[in-house]
């Protein structure tokens, strides 16, 4: 009886196993699962390597697809952020002469080369050292001929009967040092200018290099013209006013140190004020200001020239101020017309 009871049970188990095997064999999806499980359990099989059986996708393929989607979303976000930054930069620096001057295209910089900040500082140090040595040599040479230079600068008042006095023991000595320093700086300025140009030329565009020669020559010519104008016209007129104003009341006995301070400051300030057309040319080249805009503010220029003349001239007499304000106004108007007809009248090249 026990054996008879065991046999039906064994038969039912074998029947269930046969039915299960038949179900697995009849369903393709179940066959795929069985194969995938067998491959994962067998030697050399791996469940996560991305096997496709019966239309199923492995976990490894799902992770790859998820990573690909995430990378595409990240790239889209980066492109969107770059577009936003570009729009903001266009709002801050619109497409005009200033933006082209600040951010020139690479093809306009033929001599541009990458250098670290330390390389730039080392080059700047070397060029400063050369400039200092050149100015020092020029000052020493001028000190040797200091007496001749002092006699030359005293000529504007020779005919006025002015006498010079040294009111302290070392006044004349320090006056010779001052005159030698100013004259040495003037003689060493070409070396300084050359070193500055050599330092900035690699970062200039082709159009800026074409403009460099006229700017340097024009600036040098205007500076020396200002010195000559001050020595020949402005200084004698100012000194003549002072002497004639005090005539018959006091005798003109001037301190030699204060006289040379007056003359040297007046000459150098006049030379610097003659740089107005050069500044206008640079502003017009960068597109910040046009010639018409410069001409439209001529009333303010007249007032500003009078104020600048009052500040630059050491004297307080109106004659000297008018003598300096007149050339300043003339130089400004000439520079404005030059920008209008030389720069703003050039045809604009249309980009494709």
Helix-strand blueprint:
Elements: H1 2-26, H2 28-41, H3 59-92, H4 97-102, H5 117-144, H6 146-154, E1 163-165, H7 171-200, H8 206-246, E2 253-255, H9 256-273, H10 276-286, H11 291-296, H12 298-312, H13 318-343
Parallel strand pairs: 1-2
Helix pairs in contact: 1-2, 5-7, 6-7, 7-9, 8-9, 8-13, 10-13, 12-13
3D structure, described in words:
This is Sec-independent protein translocase protein TATC, chloroplastic. Its main location: membrane. GO terms for molecular function: proton motive force dependent protein transmembrane transporter activity. The chain is mainly α. Among the domains are: 112-274, no CATH class; 275-345, no CATH class. The chain has 13 helices and two strands, in the order H-H-H-H-H-H-E-H-H-E-H-H-H-H-H. It has helices at 2-26, 28-41, 59-92, 97-102, 117-144, 146-154, 171-200, 206-246, 256-273, 276-286, 291-296, 298-312, 318-343; strands at residues 163-165, 253-255. A two-stranded parallel ribbon has the order 1-2. Helix 5 runs antiparallel to helix 7. The radius of gyration is 43 Å and the shape is elongated. The model is unreliable at 1-55 and 348-352 (pLDDT under 50).
Summarize this entry quickly.
With 352 residues, the protein is mainly α. It is built from 13 helices and 2 strands, in the order H-H-H-H-H-H-E-H-H-E-H-H-H-H-H. Among the domains are: 112-274, no CATH class; 275-345, no CATH class.
Number of strands: 2
- Inertia-based shape: elongated
- So how many helices? 13
Q: What is the assembly state of the chains in this entry? A: single chain
The chain-level structural class is mainly alpha
The SSE order reads HHHHHHEHHEHHHHH
Radius of gyration, in Å, reads 43 Å
Sheet of most strands: 2 strands, parallel
In whole angstroms, how far apart are the ends? 104 Å
Low-confidence stretches: 1-55, 348-352
Strand sequence of the main sheet, in spatial order?
1-2
Percent of residues in beta strands: under 5%
Provide the helix percentage: over 70%
Mean pLDDT: 75
């Amino acid at each position: 009886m026990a054996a008879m009871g065991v046999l039906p049970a064994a038969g039912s188990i074998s029947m269930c196993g046969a039915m299960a095997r038949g179900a697995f064999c009849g369903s393709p999806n179940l066959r795929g699962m069985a194969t995938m499980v067998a491959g994962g359990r067998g030697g050399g099989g791996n469940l996560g390597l991305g096997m496709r059986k019966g239309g199923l996708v492995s976990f490894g393929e799902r992770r790859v697809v998820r990573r690909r989607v995430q990378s595409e979303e990240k790239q889209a976000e980066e492109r969107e952020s770059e577009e936003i930054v570009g729009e903001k930069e266009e709002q801050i620096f619109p497409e005009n002469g200033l933006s082209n001057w600040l951010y020139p295209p690479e093809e306009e910089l033929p001599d541009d080369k990458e250098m670290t900040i330390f390389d730039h500082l080392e080059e700047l140090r070397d060029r400063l050292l050369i400039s200092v040595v050149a100015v020092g040599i020029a000052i020493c040479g001028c000190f040797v001929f200091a007496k001749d230079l002092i006699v030359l600068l005293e000529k504007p008042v020779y005919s006025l009967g002015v006498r010079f006095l040294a009111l302290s023991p070392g006044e004349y000595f320090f006056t010779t040092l001052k005159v030698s320093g100013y004259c040495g700086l003037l003689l060493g300025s070409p070396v300084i200018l050359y070193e500055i140009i050599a330092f900035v030329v690699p970062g200039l565009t082709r159009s800026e290099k074409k403009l460099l020669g006229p700017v340097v020559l024009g600036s040098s010519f205007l500076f020396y013209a200002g010195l000559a104008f001050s020595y020949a016209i402005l200084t004698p007129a100012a000194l003549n006013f002072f002497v004639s104003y005090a005539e018959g009341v006091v005798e003109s006995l001037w301190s030699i140190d204060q006289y040379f301070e007056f003359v040297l400051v007046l000459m150098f300030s006049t030379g610097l004020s003659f740089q107005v057309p050069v500044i206008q040319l640079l502003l017009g080249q960068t597109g910040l200001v046009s010639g018409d805009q410069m001409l439209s503010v001529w009333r303010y220029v007249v007032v500003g020239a009078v104020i600048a003349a009052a500040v630059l001239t050491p004297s307080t007499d109106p004659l000297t101020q008018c003598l300096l304000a007149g050339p300043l106004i003339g130089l400004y108007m000439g520079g404005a017309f030059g920008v209008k007809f030389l720069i703003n009248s050039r045809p604009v090249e249309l980009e494709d």
